[in-house]
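user: can you give me the structure for this one chain? tokens are fine.
assistant: on it. calling the predictor now.
[tool input]
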Amino acid sequence: MPKAWKFGDNVNTDEIIPATALVATDPKVLATSCMATLRPGFSDVVHPGDIIVAGTNFGCGSSREHAPVSIRGAGIAAVVAKSFARIFFRNSINVGLPIIESSEAADGISEGDEIRLDLQGGKLDNLTTGKSYSFESLGGEVGDIIRAGGLMNYVKDLLRKT
């Protein structure tokens, strides 16, 4: 069962992926350094489908896309936070990483809680506590970009259809 990994406020892009790891572009290679500054060995214990839960201003710092790419490469299904830095928000959509703004969920989910996520339905269930959280589902063009796996895939799909 997917579980939650909890981080605090103002997690910056250098903490998500250190600059020394930016020599790679492959998501799986970047994933090996994901969150290593804040939690050494994170890539060894995270499992596909897990989520990151954080406080305010997640992804502040530089504008590089490596940060959400490393998170996605690690198999993280989504990032739930009270708020996101705007450039990280957009970069996440561009690379197909679902991001959910929910103060209630960020406060109510603890490290290790088992989670069930329904992106289409806009629902996050904390199976450990029995609480459920609603969020605005990622619909419209943003949802289409996420479902396509990122902006480049979305555009390729559009071009194939024309």
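assistant: here you go. The domain at 4-161 is CATH 3.20.19.10 (Aconitase; domain 4). Helices lie at 13-16, 27-31, 42-45, 66-73, 86-95, 103-108, 140-148, 151-161.
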